Amino acid sequence: MIPDELYYTESHEWIRVEGDKATVGITDFAQRELQDIVYVELPEVGKKVKKGDVLCSIDSVKSSAEVYAPISGKVLQVNEALNEQPELVNKDSYGEGWLVVLKLEDPGEISSLLSASKYRELVEE
Amino acid sequence: MRLIFEYSKAGKEGFFVEEEEGKEIIPENLLRPEIEVLPEVSEREVVSHYLRLSALNYSVDWGFYPLGSCTMKYNPKINEEVASFFTEAHPLLPEELVQGYLRVFKELEEALKEITGLDAFTLAPAAGAHGEFTGIITVRNYLEARGERREVVLIPDSAHGTNPATAALSGFRAVEIPSDEKGMIDLEKFKAALNEKVAALMITNPNTLGIFEENIKEISRLLHEVGAFLYMDGANMNALLGQVKVADLGVDVIHLNLHKTFSTPHGGGGPGSGPVGVVEKLAPYLPGPRLVESNGLLLWEEAEGRIRSFYGNFLVMVKALAYIKELGGEGLKEVSEIAVLNSRYLRKRLEKKFKVAYPTETLHEFVLSDETFRDKISTLDLAKRLLDYGFHPPTVYFPLIVHGALMIEPTETESRETLDRFAEAMEKILDEAEKDPEVVKTAPHSTPVGRLDEVGAARKPILTWTQYKEKQD
């Protein structure tokens, strides 16, 4: 399951760009690899990140994984629902299981991300 | 299985205290309010209950415990006996009354210096991760004293999981170095990440894949060139004892786990001991107290800060020193030889049916991936099923660079027969996965409790009887 309209990273984040805002989450592949997610440590609103910085971390029964910022920007919003229901990331990783909304710093960075078809190739390898 | 609360009957009492006795001399704010929910049981019931529970434990004395990177080996009972001679002193006694005790510290420091080739040791840290922290802040203090600002600690992705936490806690930024196709530090990527901002590289050698980092001398040379240090996580020392002095590899700082390698049972949360050894230029920055010898008398001397009250967990050190003296240099060398031989034997046996993550030769442990069974059962299923065969499972899902990892460390204390029985159980489970996967997926079946709801326990933990009752109602 890899929606066509999103961009992806090699570290299995997805990003949905709308104007100067971008919603970030982890891919279906990533949530399956992690298995049952039990805790999501969200960043503080207002935090500034550079592309590749740790954005937040996710604990599952299997391991603890870091989510990297696909692009540089400022955290505008975090998905508070995950505090009570981290399993949303498992259930609906592209929808209700989104992690943060970033305000883009440099829209030019988007061209460095993977398209859906490129990401599909990566995951199917 | 019942909980102690489930034996409770209102009005039953096991032990009588004069409630008010002495109460008047205790300040009001220190008095605990009445606890509302306590089990009401007799002394006899309490004893039976906890004795029964204790018999349900699985331990390294009970059987095979191949928990990778934890070195769960059998610890000779004679060393417990030796430790029992040393329980009558208080750490605040004047030095001249406890020279024998201090001599244990001193001789152990000397023995560890001989084993590692390093110049100075502190025995203060209480466990492995505490040792890591001590080692890295010793580096930090050295750098600060020289006015150097370095903010990065490099950590290979095959290192112990505690290493990045240590770096972060000590005020550094952890930067991960990927492994190459042989399962060793990718030398090119290491070079690319190395600069004057780097304070140290934390290496686990052999790493968590059980692979010896062949390029360690080159790595230490490059680090030293830019003024950085090589920190070695010595948790896997069981593979190297008596084979090489780590100082000859260019290691500047190491922590050892006396409770893994040197004869103290562990796994129950302590007590442990994580001595830290350093090269000469770092020695003045080790935390206090330091033991100094003057006219044949051992004395305490304060030094840079303290990492713990007093000087570590003493009885663990008595056991370590007894173990080192009993075995001697040749004996310690044999420990690592047999540890590696056992591991390689088991790997060869398992390689017929399982996939080893990296083809490189391994030392005291090795890591299997789930490649040969992942379409039928998961690594967790296999681990749970091993319980039914009477074995403690290996470490699972670590290191993260191996898919569905099973990290197996048999140690030198196991017989060939045990290794064979374990390999047979592993193969049988593969068979079952083929013919009757349900029995594996619902395992364990022979333990006091069956498959636990790990997700539920992490998401909505029920930690007290009151919470449990609320959930029931």
Overall description:
The complex is a heterodimer of chains A (125) and B (473). Chain A is of the alpha+beta class and 125 residues long. Chain A has one domain (7-105): RNA polymerase II/Efflux pump adaptor protein, barrel-sandwich hybrid domain (OB fold (Dihydrolipoamide Acetyltransferase, E2P), Beta Barrel). Chain A has 4 helices and 9 strands, in the order E-E-E-H-E-E-E-E-E-H-H-E-H. Chain A has helices at residues 28-34, 81-84, 88-91, 116-124; strands spanning 7-8, 13-18, 21-26, 37-41, 48-49, 54-60, 64-68, 73-78, 100-104. A 6-stranded antiparallel sheet of chain A has the order 1-2-3-9-8-5. Chain A is globular. With 473 residues, chain B is α/β, with parallel strands linked by helices. Chain B has 3 domains: 4-55, no CATH class; 78-326, Aspartate Aminotransferase, domain 2 (3-Layer(aba) Sandwich); 336-457, Aspartate Aminotransferase, domain 1, CATH 3.90.1150.10. In chain B, 36% of the residues lie in helices and 11% in strands. In chain B, the strands form 3 sheets. Chain B has a 7-stranded mixed sheet, sandwiched between helices. In chain B, helix 3 (99-116) packs parallel to helix 9 and helix 4 runs parallel beside helix 5 (162-169). Classes of the chains: A alpha+beta (125), B alpha/beta (473). Chain A binds chain B through residues 36, 38-39, 59, 61-63, 65, 86-87, and chain B through 380, 397-398, 400, 454-455, 458-459.
Number of helices of chain B: 14
Structural class of chain B: alpha/beta
How many structural domains of chain B? 3
Q: For the CA atoms, what is the radius of gyration of chain A?
A: 13 Å
Number of domains of chain A: 1
Poorly predicted residue ranges of chain A = none
- Reading off the top of the CATH hierarchy, the class of chain A is best stated as Mainly Beta
Average predicted local confidence, pLDDT of chain A: 93
Multimerization status: heterodimer
Kindly state the number of beta strands of chain A.
9
- In whole angstroms, the N-to-C terminal distance of chain A is 15 Å
Helix content of chain A: 10-25%
Instruction: Please identify, by name, the CATH architecture of the largest domain in chain B.
Output: 3-Layer(aba) Sandwich
- Named CATH architecture of chain A: Beta Barrel
Shape of chain A: globular
Taking pLDDT < 50 over at least 5 consecutive residues as the criterion, the unreliable ranges of chain B are none
Q: What is the alpha-carbon Rg of chain B in Å?
A: 25 Å
Note the run of SSEs of chain A as H and E.
EEEHEEEEEHHEH
Largest interface, C-beta within 8 A: A-B, 10 and 8 residues
What is the strand arrangement across the widest sheet of chain B?
1-7-6-5-4-2-3
Strand line-up across the major sheet of chain A:
1-2-3-9-8-5
